[in-house]
Amino acid sequence: MAEKADRAAAMRDDVQYVTIHGKKRAFVLKGSGPALLLLHGLACDHTTWTPVIDQLAKKYTVIAPDLLGHGLSDKPRADYTLGGYANGMRDLLTVLGIDKVTVVGHSFGGGVAMQFAYQFPERTQRVMLVATGGLGPEVTPLIKLIQVPGWFRVMGVLTLPGVRHLETFALRTAHEYGDVGPLRKVTRDLDEVADIVESWKDRRTRFAIRHLVRAVIDWRGQIVTMSDRAYLSDAMPMAVVWGRDDQVIPVRHASNAAALAPDVRVEVLPDAGHFPHKDHPEEFARILDDFVSSTEPASYNRARFRRMLKAGGSAPASPVPTLEGAPEPQAATSA
C-alpha cells in the first residue's frame, strides 16, 4: 500500500497543465517515439496508468490525461458526453503538437477511445480497449446507482470526514488481507474503489461523475453500444484486453468484440480484475508494444469514408466500432 502511494506521488510530480477553452487540463507527458494516448476509466485519473507509464515511455511518447471532471483537471459545468471528451482529447493533442496516436482506453475511457476514433479517424492509428464499456449492457450495480435520484446527497454524507476515512480504511484493509485465497476475485480492486470514494469528497467531482454516468447508463445497464457504425473504420487495427476476474464489466463482453470485428486481437489475462494493466503491468506493456509493433497504422481516406457512409449498414463490419447514440463527428466544440 505504501509502495503504491509512493508511485502515485511520484507520478503527480510529473503532472503538467494546459488551459483550453478556459478549462485547466492535467496530464502526464513522458518519453519519445510513436504516441500513445492513455485514457482512464470512470472516477479514476492518470495514476491508474502509473504501473505502466515508465515502461512504455522507454519506447513511446506517452500522454496520460486526467479527463475533465476527474483528478487534477477542472470540474466545471460542461459537456460530459463521449463526443465532448473526444473533442477535448483532440484539442489537447493539438496543443501538444501531436498529430496521430494509438488510443488506449480503459473502461469508460474505452468508450472515449472509440468515439475519438470515429470522430477523428485521420488522427487515430490504432485502438486498444481495456475492460471496456460499449460491448454489452451488463455493468456492476454500484455504477447503476450513480444515476439514481438522491445519489449525490447520500454520497455527500458518506464522504464526510470520519465516515469517509472509516470507509476507505475498511476497503484498503479488505484489499490487502483479502488479496490471497478465495476472496481475491472480490477484493482485488478495492484499493481502487477506496481512491474513488476519497475523490468523491469533492462535490464538483460527484457532479461530473453523475452527469457522465447518466449519459451512458440507465437502470438496465449500459445504454451505448459499439456496433452500429462498425463499418466506418474498416482499416483500423483494434485490440481488446480484459481481466478474467473482472467484477465490474463481465469478461464475456470480450468475445462480443470478435463478433463485431473479426480481425480484433483479444487477450484475457488470468488472475486479473477490472484493472489488468495494474494487476500485470509488465505483461500489459508487452501486449501493447506487440500490438503497436506488429500492425500498420490506419490510413484515413476521405473518399473511402464517403463511400462507406453512403453504403451504410450494408458495408462490411469493421475492426473499430463506435457508439450507438453518440454525437456525430464534431470539429468546433470541446469539453
Automatic annotation (TrEMBL):
Gene3D superfamilies on file:
alpha/beta hydrolase
The region called Disordered is annotated at 311-335
Q: Which domain of life is it from?
A: Bacteria
Matching SUPFAM superfamilies, A to Z? alpha/beta-Hydrolases (SSF53474)
Give the CC-aspect GO terms: membrane
InterPro entries in UniProt:
AB_hydrolase_1 (IPR000073), AB_hydrolase_fold (IPR029058), AB_hydrolase_sf (IPR050266), Epox_hydrolase-like (IPR000639)
Domain AB hydrolase-1: residue ranges: 34-281
- Report the GO molecular function annotations: monoacylglycerol lipase activity
BP terms from Gene Ontology: acylglycerol catabolic process
Q: Which PANTHER family match?
A: HYDROLASE, PUTATIVE (AFU_ORTHOLOGUE AFUA_2G14860)-RELATED, MONOACYLGLYCEROL LIPASE
The name this protein carries in UniProt is: Pimeloyl-ACP methyl ester carboxylesterase
Q: Per the UniProt entry, what species is this protein from, by scientific name?
A: Nocardioides aromaticivorans
